[in-house]
Amino acid sequence: MAGVRAPKRSCAAVIAAGLVFATAAAAAAAVASVVNVRIEGATHTLFEGPILTTGHALRAGSDTGWHTCDGTNANAHATPGPTPTAAAADGLALLNLGFDGQWYPGYDDYFVKQLGPDREGAGAYWGVLVNAALTPVGGCQFELAPGDDVLWAYDAFRARAFLQLTRAAACPLPGAPATVAPATLPGTSVSLRVCASSGGSDAAPGSAMSAPQAGIAVAEVDPANGAVRGQSAPSAADGAVSIPDLAPGWHRFKSFGDPASFVRSNRVDVCVDSGTAGDCAAVLTDAVVRQPPSTPDDPGAGHGTPAAPAPSAPSIATGLSAPASTLEPIIRGATAVGSVRLSAPHIDASGRDGRLIVSWSVLDGGPGIRGWALAARVRGARGAAWSTLARGRTATTARVRAPAGLLAQLRLTVTDELGRSSSGIAGQALVPIDDRARSLQLRGGWQHERDARAWERTLTQGRRGCQLRVRLAAGRPTLLLRAARESAWIEVRAGGHAETFGIAAGDARALRRVVAARRSSAGDVTVKVLSGAVRLDGVAAQP
To answer: Are 290 and 49 in contact (CB under 8 A)?
Structure first.
């Protein structure tokens, strides 16, 4: 990186806290997750950014009824979740735009014909990719995982390559998300890399190979309107592009090639901090997680469940609670448990003693409640079994210890006095391995501190040279950090693959989440502090 004092493997950086915990409004509704949505239209990018989304009912502009779009379509999944089509509709809704498509009952899915102002025509069709791979099923059947990258591209099947822009030292691994989190530069120059993945009619659904792309210019664009401000020299054979002498403040970059051969890349946001003017204090508004407006279902359609309102600033310390409501009972269908109706379960993830607090209210007791059971399973693990964590009858709160280091899905089962039982998803939580856990092998001058906002009220701070090693399950190694007064660079090494992340300085209350590339098997993960200070709250693996 010319003119920048940075590690050799400079990659993505994390500046904004991600959503660590997600809850459902009601167990019958899809669990909300943060995913990155990008819609590349015929002539420009229609939408790009992270949103909090769920699977829910949709109605196309030319349709007369509502249709389920939550991953349970065509029995693709047993439980509802976020989907690419619902996520695209949510992103457009933030811009007061809509979509159109044709519903095919035989496939239980929409064929998307128009997103925003751009309608298909002359053989140019909309296509959807998740993590740079064409989806093998329709956009209402495919279920997204937290952090996934969704790309809807106009004219997606004309054998064009899909450009990817990254700050990494190498192109993304197959299936890895392409979106790069906003970063604060430790200098005034930035090194970028242009990659491309195959995504035309010759690409097999579900495959995603990424390779360096030479001869592509990187353009700085206006965050407000996307207008091009200037272009770099063409990328080198290894895809590398260096952009020097950036002024203080935020800069946004995208790569563009010949439209006949390439689909525009994702954006990369970086900020040059002069150290005196607070140039990076405010993150670009469309780079933070946004919640789409609620779209209630057609009462007469009988499809889907309204999406739940979600907290505007969730964090691991304050806990995340879905507000009590009089939505559908957690048991779908009133006859399942008579007239028993409950509020949406709340999950308090403050981790006071390493436990989650799940609570709810009885809105209508009907014939009475004989008992309830709260169970958990590891989300994303094949064949994961439900394990009962707590049982009760009159209590409406359960304090449970979920498996540490994993994304736990919670299920609440209620039995009424007539013996009728049914279950629903109460929510999910990424439960960290605490920074004081014995399974963490710490080397160097790590220092322990108390913090009432942290998981189990403890943090461990490390500076340059400090290392930790921990064995994590398959999935994406995830570090939960609290902001420090100075920025930092860390290296995460797992499965023979190393990534370097920049951690922005900030208020001590701010949560930073570092998510490394997905691994297909369990193994050791090593973290090394390269510069600055890191305040570790916990570690985990998520799907």
So the answer is: yes
pTM of the prediction?
0.53
Six token digits for residue 16 = 């904004």
How far is CA 334 from each of CA 301, 364, 422, 489, rounded to the nearest angstrom?
A: 17, 11, 11, 53
116-167 pLDDT tens trace: 999 998 889 999 999 888 888 899 999 999 889 999 999 988 878 899 999 9
The dihedral built from the CA positions of residue 532, 537, 541 and 543, taken in this order, carries a sign that is: negative
The Cα–Cα gap between 237 and 243 comes to 16
If DSSP codes are grouped into helix, strand and coil, which group holds residue 479? strand
| Beta-bridge mates of residue 161 | 198, 262
Q: Most confidently modeled of 160-164, 198-202, 354-358, 484-488?
A: 160-164
Cα dist. 367→170, 415, 418 in Å? 62, 10, 7
| Residue 490 backbone dihedrals phi, psi, to 5 degrees | -130, 155
| Angstrom distance (rounded) from CA 327 to CA 349 | 23
What is the three-state SS of 509-535? CCEEEEECCCECCCEEEEEEEEECEEE
Own/partner long-range contacts of 102-107 (Cβ < 8 Å, ≥24 apart): 102/60, 103/60, 103/63, 103/67, 107/74, 107/138
Q: What are phi and psi of 285, to 5 degrees?
A: -60, -35
CA distance 443 to 468: 6
**Cβ contacts of 25 within 8 Å, gap of 6 or more:** 305, 306, 307, 308, 309, 322, 325, 327, 344
Long-range contacts of 69-75 (CB under 8 A, 24+ apart): 69/109, 69/110, 69/139, 69/140, 69/304, 70/30, 70/140, 70/304, 71/30, 71/140, 71/141, 71/142, 71/143, 73/108, 73/109, 73/138, 73/140, 73/141, 74/107, 74/108, 74/109, 74/137, 74/138, 74/141
pLDDT value for 100: 92
C-alpha distances (whole Å) from 539 to each of 142, 239, 368, 412, 515 are 28, 33, 42, 26, 10
Q: Where are the beta strands (DSSP E) in 340-450?
A: 341-342, 346-348, 356-359, 362-364, 369-378, 387-392, 397-400, 406-416, 421-431, 433-434, 441-443, 447-450
Contact 468, 535 (CB under 8 A): no
What is the tens place of the pLDDT at every residue in 453-495? 788 888 999 999 999 999 999 888 989 888 888 888 899 998 8
